[in-house]
Design a protein that fits this description.
148 residues; mainly alpha; three-stranded antiparallel β-sheet; 7 helices; elongated
């Protein structure tokens, strides 16, 4: 038995391994479809969140995108250098920058979102409606079980 087979056999019972592989497959496919737009998955996630919640701070954006503030700072600097977003001081807090999509950013997001949504729809279509509900429920239970 080769190394790959030994590892696969030893970890087959580990649910975390299956969840991680599913996540990696989803991220890999989104990476593939976003590449023609010059976007990474974290950049796309930031644009998506900003399209839904314009004017939020980088710290709040990081929380909503489930990344560290340091990672979001890097993402925002890249998006700003490409003129896809603009950041301005908050009218309420001078030390806080609020972030919005530029018209160019909105246009790129709209095109990229169509490609990302197609990936999500393809994944959804692999399941019957009752299976989708069951899968969501099972994953929600996993999150609840593992959350502090």
């Amino acid at each position: 038995m080769g190394t790959e087979e030994k590892v696969a056999e030893a970890s087959a019972w580990r649910l975390g391994n299956t969840i991680k592989r599913a996540e990696q497959a989803l991220i890999a496919e989104k990476t593939r479809v976003l590449r023609p737009f010059g976007l990474t998955v974290p950049q796309y996630a930031a644009l998506l969140t900003l399209s839904l919640a314009p004017g939020i701070s980088g710290a709040r954006l990081a929380r909503l995108c489930l990344v560290t503030p340091q990672s979001m700072t890097t993402v925002l600097k890249t998006l700003e250098s490409r003129r896809l977003i603009e950041r301005r001081p908050s009218p309420d807090h001078a030390q806080v920058l609020v972030t919005r999509l530029t018209p160019e950013g909105q246009a790129l997001f709209d095109r990229a979102d169509a490609a990302a949504v197609a990936v999500e729809r393809r994944l959804l279509e692999a399941y019957a409606p009752e299976e989708r509900d069951l899968l969501r429920g099972l994953l929600d239970r996993a999150i609840t079980t593992l959350s502090p």
